[in-house]
Amino acid sequence: MAVAAIRTSSLTKDHGGGRGLFDLDLQVSAHDAFGLLGLEGAGKTTAIRLLMGMIRPTRGSAYVFGLDCVREAVEVKRRVGYMPGETPEFGSLRGSEIVAYLAGLRGGVHKDRVRELAERFDVDLGRRHRDYSQGDRQKLSIVLAFMHDPDLLMLDEPSRDLDETGAAELQALIDEARTAGTTILLASRTAAEIERHCEVVGLLRRGKLSRVMRIEDLPEELEEPSRKALPP
Questions:
Q1: Helix ranges, 106-157 (H)
Q2: What is the arithmetic mean of pLDDT over 15-41?
Q3: CA-to-CA distance for 86 and 51, rounded, in angstroms?
Q4: pLDDT band per the 50, 70, 90 thresholds, residue 95
Q5: What's the rounded Cα separation, in Å, for the pair 87 and 132?
Q6: Whole-angstrom Cα distance, residue 109 to residue 159?
Q7: Residues 6 or more apart from 15 whose CB is under 8 A from it?
Q8: What pTM was estimated for this model as a whole?
């Protein structure tokens, strides 16, 4: 029996005051594309950070390709391409130095792939991170997530801060990854972004997974252009 790309059981991170993620039971098969749809504060980022081993759960368990997300977090990170919802601050490091640092953690990355992505998104790796615009920081995050051709992509609001050209290029890149068999977990507040790439969607409300459905069964009110975000 094939190992699931993502499997969680009662996964919980309680921040107090009703904030966090609660009792998440989720399974995503390898090569599938799964969307997490919810408003800001619904628990999307918390779920991904737990899967990446960046925070510890209050209770429950999470596995990525059979790897424990707490005990084997380093190996999980090698197999995952991660785009955070908010780009981290790298200060005076140049883009090329950030690439080299993360490539080393992942066991090496082909330079031609890095060059291709940087040119594709028109991001200057010779500049210091503190001098990047917010859009350029998001483009660097794309390079970092895709450069090692990961088995699994975890994308948290990936089109945020991108201009129309950058967003279209990202869509094409995600499509290419899907064609190559990469598993995708995409978190977004926008139903249209989920529909564009995912086969199955889970609705997160106030930290709880309220419903999982095929993308074609997404309620019509979430598909209207004037109401692309999940309503309260």
A1: 111-120, 134-146
A2: 95
A3: 16
A4: very high
A5: 11
A6: 24
A7: 46
A8: 0.91
